[in-house]
Amino acid sequence: MLSPAVIQEEGRRSEGTQRLEAMSDAVIAIAITLLVLEIHVPEEKGNEALARALAEQWPSYFGFALSFLTIGVVWANHHHMFQDIARVDHLLVVLNLLLMMTVSFIPFSTAVLAGHLEAEDGRLVATVLYGGNFLVTALVLNVLWHYASWNRRLIAPDVSDRHIHGRSVRYVAGPLFYGLTLPLALVSPLASLTVYVVVAAIYLIPVGD
Amino acid sequence: MLSPAVIQEEGRRSEGTQRLEAMSDAVIAIAITLLVLEIHVPEEKGNEALARALAEQWPSYFGFALSFLTIGVVWANHHHMFQDIARVDHLLVVLNLLLMMTVSFIPFSTAVLAGHLEAEDGRLVATVLYGGNFLVTALVLNVLWHYASWNRRLIAPDVSDRHIHGRSVRYVAGPLFYGLTLPLALVSPLASLTVYVVVAAIYLIPVGD
Amino acid sequence: MLSPAVIQEEGRRSEGTQRLEAMSDAVIAIAITLLVLEIHVPEEKGNEALARALAEQWPSYFGFALSFLTIGVVWANHHHMFQDIARVDHLLVVLNLLLMMTVSFIPFSTAVLAGHLEAEDGRLVATVLYGGNFLVTALVLNVLWHYASWNRRLIAPDVSDRHIHGRSVRYVAGPLFYGLTLPLALVSPLASLTVYVVVAAIYLIPVGD
Amino acid sequence: MLSPAVIQEEGRRSEGTQRLEAMSDAVIAIAITLLVLEIHVPEEKGNEALARALAEQWPSYFGFALSFLTIGVVWANHHHMFQDIARVDHLLVVLNLLLMMTVSFIPFSTAVLAGHLEAEDGRLVATVLYGGNFLVTALVLNVLWHYASWNRRLIAPDVSDRHIHGRSVRYVAGPLFYGLTLPLALVSPLASLTVYVVVAAIYLIPVGD
């Protein structure tokens, strides 16, 4: 039996989801915007030299755009997930913190990729780091969702089991894609990067949620 | 027919606009505040040398101020737009993500402009990059608005068609201005920069929304 | 006479204050947190050398702390001000944007100050830049408040005239202090910096709002 | 006796807790995400050289992860604390500002630690700085909580005395741990760092709040 005081406390506590989402949004928004700081500002003087310098760092723009879109996909997935999650417990906070850690690491692995994409030698290691970052992010996202949805642990009562199942199936695609392309990077880094672009594009294409 | 559960789900989903706006605000706020990091801190010792070094990097202050105001205008427009938009769908999220990408690129093109504004040689390329960034931003903003307002797709029911039309007409001014000044930059970069200042000023002058 | 549709639109519009405050909070929070990036990470090896290098950059810690507290005071004032302001119009948005511009410039002038505080030569210019940044910030804050409170233009109906007057008087203290210490910097930069510390301390001492 | 106007003003004022929390969340989110900027992007060309360079900067990843988790723990504690705190007064704002200052300093001391963890000489000073930053953060957190909970000054009426007492006891563990490990760093920096990992892990293990 709940006393009014306890109910009120629960009422205050229940905004937990909201603050966790706000915190996650902030970290994701900062990580996505910090990406631009990793693009080197060329100091070449002269129109021709500057234009060439700007053009030559196309890997930086590629990395910026791909990471921006991928983090955007993570944000969208995170957002959708928390429309089904109604309550927060301690382990969910911890898992979410780990997810934020992997996301906020992306500007670093993007910078490493951009700095080593052009030369054939070095591209392999940079791509594995980059893809590995995406893979771990996708894995943690799946762990978080499975923890929250297991036996409907933290799920809102109005969400159907079928809906939960559908989400679980869709989310598995992420680690699968990234896991399969990581060995591909050992053979051809560019091929695996192409897959990353395709993965981001698939999520971005409007097929509804 | 909607069951209560579905209605509740819709209720939860409808906060989508709010979280999208919050996310956009965060990215815009970060991009606008990161601008200052691109201003070089002079290490010259001695009052005279320091004062000269500070004065000589006026292009950095110019770029900081112009980009700050322009991003501020984007924020205001984004804000007004979402007062009319009541619902969010997948493609709107994607278009908004693209808009955020172009906005968060501005600190980079501002830094390139600031580094090449003084010397006559190099100014052209830097101005085209800078103006191009603004042009693409204005274009994506227009695409987003037209997508949302086409056949009142995502518009709140209480917004009048006349209001929508007025907004559409006003928003077209952005890409028009930036599109026309881009070739102008080929003739005179300074003239086109003057237009950017005027465009920002026009939006900032209090003529209501 | 207002139709229900218009009332609803007004209802949506009235959240303007909230989004303006959220935006300002974000910019202020980012500016205050970026301060730490301006502190140089010493690379000296060896415990003694490292300890000495860390100790020698005390001006960076001083600048960090003083700017952090001063921006904190701006935040508190901004926050209090918007408890009285009930509505937002276009010019208020523009003035607030200018305020955010002066605040987000502080990490730069803090870095310049920290880099020139130790050597006697150069300290003068750095202090004038730093104090000038504070002075302009305080001035814009006053202009914003006077614009909003003039003839109760944007003030909530329940705020008393006496309360408005009290706030106006208190806020004038800011530009007065910073204005008077700017010439003082020409005589003794350290003396004027001491005043900045005192000003921040006065606002921080718990005498209520 | 309160007039309706005063009640409404109080109503508006009471959102103070919310804006203070939002501000704190923003600062913490930015500090936690800035950590990645302190990781150096290696420019070594060649797969082998790059892999070695990436592996050799393990102290940076260690510092990133440890500081990320520790700031995450501070965030969680701050969040829980403000579920009990119902009102904000001036000194609480000031104490919270000091807490934010110590948190936003962590990226700096993390960078110093990461740069001096490997070489035996220098590790001592870096660890003391790092641990000192954690110690001060934990102390300010305790001062803030004791200020707010003293005689239930700012505590919500429905929070039990036993609950307050429990929180007070738990929070004391932070400064105790960090205080005891600081002298330990003088003997063995690595041993004290191990304790930091353990402290973060203890807070992260799901034992509920």
- Secondary-structure element pattern of chain A, one letter each: HHHHHHHHH
Low-pLDDT residue spans of chain A = 1-15
Assembly context of the chains: homotetramer
**Strand runs of chain A, count:** 0
Q: Write down the overall geometry of chain A.
A: elongated
What percent of the residues of chain A sit in helical stretches (DSSP H or I)?
A: over 70%
- Largest beta-sheet characterization of chain A: none
Approximate strand percentage of chain A: under 5%
| Spatial separation of the terminal alpha carbons of chain A | 39 Å
Summarize model confidence as the mean pLDDT of chain A: 86
Tell me the domain tally of chain A: 1
- Largest interface, C-beta closer than 8 angstroms, per-chain residues: A-B, 44 and 42 residues
**Which radius of gyration of chain A do the C-alpha atoms yield?**
20 Å
Report the total helices of chain A: 9
The structure class of chain A reads mainly alpha
Report on this model:
The structure is a homotetramer of 209-residue chains. The first copy, chain A, has 209 residues and is an all-alpha fold. The first copy, chain A, has one domain. Chain A is 79% helix and 0% strand. The first copy, chain A, contains nine helices and no strands. In chain A, helix 4 runs parallel beside helix 7 (120-149), helix 7 runs parallel beside helix 9 and helix 8 packs antiparallel against helix 9. The longest helix of chain A has 30 residues, at 120-149. Chain A starts with a helix and ends in a 5-residue tail after the last helix. The model of chain A is unreliable at 1-15 (pLDDT under 50).
